[in-house]
Design a protein that fits this description.
It contains one helix and four strands. The protein has one domain. With 59 residues, it is an alpha+beta fold.
């Protein structure tokens, strides 16, 4: 189950992505690693990982 911080950060980042008119192709929560993984863009050029504390990195 994602943390509240992860869920809020995911909602904010997804809003930024879709506001830029880019599609979100993958949105997944990995239970073992406890991260949210997002791929976006027409060629999946944006990859984001959101950690338990709400911090995110572009991969």
């Amino acid at each position: 189950m994602p943390t509240a911080q992860q869920a809020i950060k995911a909602a904010i980042l997804c809003q930024y992505i879709t506001r830029s008119l880019l599609p979100i192709t993958i949105f997944r929560y990995y239970r073992v690693a406890k991260i949210i993984y997002i791929e976006a863009g027409y060629n999946q050029e944006i990859t984001i990982r959101i950690h338990e504390n709400g911090e995110f990195i572009y991969v």
